[in-house]
Design brief:
about 15% strand, alpha/beta, about 375 residues, about 35% helix, single chain, 15 strands, 8-stranded parallel β-barrel, 3-stranded antiparallel β-sheet, TIM Barrel
């Protein structure tokens, strides 16, 4: 018997559980406060962070997230000059009438995050991002529980001791402990559950997301850091389950890619307006950065790249504010069902129940499965009266 078989256990995804309704003092979901506190005094009115993907967060979405009380991480699949331009644009965006809920720095400007890597110019890129106004840095790598990722976190912690430092991705308690020990304030959890990710198919690696969040949240509490659940979120209910399992926030990519402010490419086909991801899944990081710098690629440049993602098209969903309003409203409803006025109380009270495949099927509105009936014809009845 292999060592892997000896340690075999069951992993759960969000669809494997439901939150158990409980007696509630909450009279209206409007009473529910979704605010969360991240390390280093970062307060978010909504526990939602937009993903640092090429087709999600640029300056426009980062600014929109801050206005709504969340946080956006500007992607790094571009030159340093391009990325710092996005950060500066978001940092100087007008907040407007949302200031009461907006995520702001001490000077009243939008909070903005930015991603950097673990190799090449990552130290210089991080310094340029901080100089351009980034309030948070994200050490972005597919496998965050690796020596070079841990070393990169330690270097950036030393260079920027006052900046909120996020690192990931990991899927185990050991990964959280090692990144926290290296200096990460927040650890991003999720290997393979993303909407366009194929890591679990290509590499056969990952941990079902609910189990990953549960394991990592326990380790984060012991290590004195926080976690972000990244991936696997398809509904507002999934956001609630991730927070109930111990995440301080969720990172959304696919659910925000259709927003007007996202970096996804607007497309129209047969009169239907959509937005499309592009580039990175097909080309990989190195080649994406080369194209961003204006270089031309040949077939040989991409021949050895093994993609761990797919290109995708997303329905247009309107403004980020409208999308977030729906998602946060669902979260507030979930918290009210558990009898919680705030996130801390929600995490204390929330209880999960595992569901069977029949239970998962029951979750869907079953009227959708019925064959439509012909429209009733009342003409004969009326004429015979």
């Amino acid at each position: 018997m292999t060592r892997a078989a000896d340690r075999l256990r069951t992993g759960l995804s969000f669809d494997d559980v439901l939150l158990v309704p409980q007696r509630s003092p909450v009279r209206s979901r409007a009473e529910v406060d979704t605010a969360v506190e991240l390390p280093r005094g970062v307060r978010l009115a909504i526990p939602v962070i937009s993903a640092n993907t090429q087709w999600c967060t640029g300056g426009a979405l980062a600014a929109a997230m801050a206005r709504c009380g969340g946080l956006g991480f500007v992607h790094r699949m571009q030159t340093v000059a391009q990325q710092t331009g996005h950060v500066a644009a978001a940092k100087h965006a007008v907040v407007g009438p949302d200031a009461a809920r907006a995520a702001l720095d001490r000077a009243g400007r939008p909070l903005v995050g930015a991603a950097t890597g673990v190799a090449g110019d990552f130290v210089e890129r991080a310094a340029a991002l901080v100089d351009s106004g980034a309030d948070a840095l994200l050490v972005d790598v597919a496998h965050g529980h690796s020596d070079h990722a841990i070393e990169a976190v330690a270097k950036l912690r030393s260079a920027h001791p006052d900046v909120l430092l996020v690192a990931g991705n990991v899927a185990t308690d050991e990964g959280v402990r090692d990144l926290a020990a290296a200096g990460a304030d927040v650890v991003k959890v999720g290997i393979g559950p993303g909407g366009v990710c194929t890591t679990r198919l290509v590499a056969g690696s990952g941990v079902p997301q609910l189990t990953a969040v549960l394991d990592c949240a326990e380790a984060a509490e012991e290590a004195g850091c926080a976690i972000i659940a990244d991936g696997g979120v398809r509904t507002a209910g999934d956001i609630a389950k991730a927070l109930a399992a111990g995440a301080s926030a969720v990172m959304l990519g696919s659910l925000l890619a259709g927003c007007d402010e996202s970096e996804a490419l607007p497309v129209e086909r047969d009169g239907v307006r959509s937005k499309s991801s592009r580039g990175f899944a097909t080309l990989g990081m190195a080649n994406t950065l080369r194209t961003a710098a204006g270089e031309r690629l040949t077939a040989a440049d991409v021949a050895d790249y093994v993609p761990e993602g797919v290109e995708a098209t997303f329905p247009r969903t309107g403004s980020a504010a409208a999308t977030l309003r729906q998602l946060v409203g669902g979260l507030q409803s979930a918290m009210s069902y558990s009898g919680a006025h705030d996130v801390a109380r929600f995490q204390e009270r929330a209880r999960f129940i595992r569901v069977t495949p029949a239970g998962r099927a029951e979750n869907r509105p079953h009227a959708l499965d019925r064959a439509p009936l012909p429209a009733p014809d009342y003409r004969g009845e009326v004429m015979n009266r």
